């Protein structure tokens, strides 16, 4: 009954949210690319490529979730040489990154809208043998269709913040039927288990395996491309670099002001900023220029030679992990002027000391563990951010200790990708057993 009302009201909800979504697509560009896939419309070429395969459907959202999906699919392919994957992603940046990194055993599509006729059409074309959802993407029709077709349904690298749990629990009667469709929930921390039980997932379906995102053995960093870009801008590899990763509005200007003040003591310092949303690059460049900074876009590296810039602004996607390799100190964005925080793991795995602001709600357990083990620095405000950056630039031994402590915190997640892949491969027999039990 709940699903009936969900589908009945879905067109109304879509019409209310559609203007905002279209605006976002226009800002991010390339919105017309394969637009029909969002409505379950697939051309003959896609259908022909899918027809010979027994597909695993992995559903992600944007670049971060796609990176997890790619790591997991590579491990699944090791376990099953016949493995073939359909990876659906929601954003244009996620789609571009997935397409760039996809193997020959993967078809990248846009995620279909979670409306019953659209989702049913997507299942008919993809014909999956199992469905894997990444982090938090549990949609009612997507989950119910998998259950109705007897397909194993897994949620991997499950992410559920305290705020999200509280919101779900207020509407438990609405969300519990969807969560009970899950055959497997792979959580990142032991304390996550009780949260998922509270939302209706049976305890025996929940496994604590660690985080794929934090699995150090599965992460590879290649500094060659960023070093080439730095050389094109006339910046040698020995200069100290203050790096702002996945920044949000207001944080870029704070970093720019701190950078200006720090240059009195560290004249060779260079600022590199990777905004969370690259479509803001033009706006950020204008704001930083008003501070007196010479700012160049990463995409301008092949144009005319000019004096080395004060700041490089990354306006490309899919390269952030490699750029961390050339940083000296990393500030993790969405933690000072915005709430939620971004992933601190990639710079840690690249061997860099990390600072973040007071708002790390989306990574609260990890942030607390890092701070408690003197493995990262959590600052209160811009003044304390400047103070700690200066300290780390002066004391390289302290910076090295911070990195070593952080990598020790992440060590418990080693092998998470392999553990998750093994559980997913064993799901098929579990789903068959459930179907047989329901028939009896």
Write the layout of secondary structure elements.
Blueprint: H1 2-28, H2 44-50, E1 55-59, H3 63-79, E2 84-89, H4 92-101, E3 106-110, H5 116-126, E4 128-134, H6 140-148, E5 153-158, H7 162-170, H8 172-179, E6 184-187, H9 192-198, E7 206-208, H10 224-232, E8 241-247, H11 251-262, E9 270-275, H12 281-290, E10 295-297, E11 311-313, H13 320-323, E12 329-332, H14 345-349, E13 354-356, H15 364-372, E14 377-378, H16 382-394, H17 396-410, H18 416-425, H19 427-439
Parallel strand pairs: 1-2, 1-4, 2-3, 4-5, 5-6, 6-7, 8-9, 8-12, 9-11, 10-11, 12-13, 13-14
Rg from Cα: 23 Å
> Fraction of residues in helices?
40-55%
Mean pLDDT: 90
Give the overall shape, derived from the CA principal axes: globular
State the end-to-end distance: 24 Å
Tally of strands: 14
Polypeptide structure, described:
With 440 residues, the protein is of the alpha/beta class. The chain folds into two domains: 27-213 and 415-439, 3-Deoxy-D-manno-octulosonic-acid transferase, N-terminal domain (Rossmann fold), CATH 3.40.50.11720; 224-413, 3-Layer(aba) Sandwich (Rossmann fold), CATH 3.40.50. Helices cover 47% and strands 15% of the residues. It has 19 helices and 14 strands. The chain has helices at residues 2-28, 44-50, 63-79, 92-101, 116-126, 140-148, 162-170, 172-179, 192-198, 224-232, 251-262, 281-290, 320-323, 345-349, 364-372, 382-394, 396-410, 416-425, 427-439; strands at 55-59, 84-89, 106-110, 128-134, 153-158, 184-187, 206-208, 241-247, 270-275, 295-297, 311-313, 329-332, 354-356, 377-378. The strands form two sheets. Strands 3-2-1-4-5-6-7 form a seven-stranded parallel β-sheet, sandwiched between helices. Strand 13 (354-356), helix 15 and strand 14 form a beta-alpha-beta unit. Helix 3 runs parallel beside helix 4 (92-101), helix 3 packs across helix 18 and helix 11 (251-262) packs across helix 16 (382-394). The two termini are 24 Å apart.
């Amino acid at each position: 009954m709940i699903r009936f009302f969900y589908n009945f009201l879905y067109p109304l909800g879509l019409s209310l949210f559609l203007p905002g979504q279209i605006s976002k697509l226009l800002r991010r560009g390339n919105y017309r690319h394969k637009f029909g896939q969002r409505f379950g419309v697939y051309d003959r070429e896609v259908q022909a490529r899918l027809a010979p395969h027994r597909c695993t459907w992995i559903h992600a959202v944007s670049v971060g979730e796609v990176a997890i999906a790619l790591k997991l699919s590579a491990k699944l392919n090791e376990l099953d040489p016949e493995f073939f994957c359909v990876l659906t992603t929601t954003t244009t940046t996620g789609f571009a990154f997935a397409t760039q990194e996809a193997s020959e055993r993967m078809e990248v599509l846009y995620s279909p809208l979670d409306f019953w006729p659209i989702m049913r059409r997507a299942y008919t074309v993809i014909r999956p043998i199992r469905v894997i959802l990444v982090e938090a993407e549990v949609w009612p029709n997507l989950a119910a269709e998998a259950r109705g077709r007897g397909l194993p349904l897994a949620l991997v690298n499950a992410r559920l913040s305290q705020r999200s749990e509280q919101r779900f629990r207020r509407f438990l009667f609405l969300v519990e039927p969807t969560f009970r469709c899950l055959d497997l929930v792979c959580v990142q921390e032991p304390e996550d288990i009780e949260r998922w039980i509270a939302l209706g997932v049976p305890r025996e379906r929940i496994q604590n395996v660690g985080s794929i995102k934090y699995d150090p053995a599965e992460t590879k960093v290649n500094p060659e491309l960023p070093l080439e870009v730095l050389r094109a801008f006339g910046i040698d590899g020995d200069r100290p670099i203050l790096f702002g990763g996945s920044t949000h509005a207001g944080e870029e200007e704070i970093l720019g002001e701190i950078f200006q003040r720090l240059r009195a003591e560290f004249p060779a310092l260079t600022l590199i900023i990777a905004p969370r949303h690259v479509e803001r690059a033009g706006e950020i460049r204008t704001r930083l220029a008003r501070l007196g900074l010479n700012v160049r876009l990463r995409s301008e590296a092949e144009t005319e030679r000019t004096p080395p810039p004060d700041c490089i602004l990354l306006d490309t996607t899919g390269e952030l992990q490699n750029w961390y390799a050339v940083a000296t100190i990393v500030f993790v964005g969405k933690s000072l002027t915005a709430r939620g925080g971004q992933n601190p793991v990639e710079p840690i795995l690249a061997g860099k000391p990390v600072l973040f602001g007071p708002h790390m709600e989306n990574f609260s357990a990890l942030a607390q563990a890092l701070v408690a083990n003197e493995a990262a620095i959590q600052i209160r405000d811009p003044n304390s951010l400047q103070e700690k950056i200066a300290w780390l630039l002066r004391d390289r031994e302290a910076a090295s200790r911070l990195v070593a402590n952080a990598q020790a915190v992440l060590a418990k997640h080693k092998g998470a990708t392999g553990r998750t892949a093994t559980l997913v491969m064993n799901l098929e027999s579990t789903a068959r057993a459930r179907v047989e039990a329901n028939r009896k």
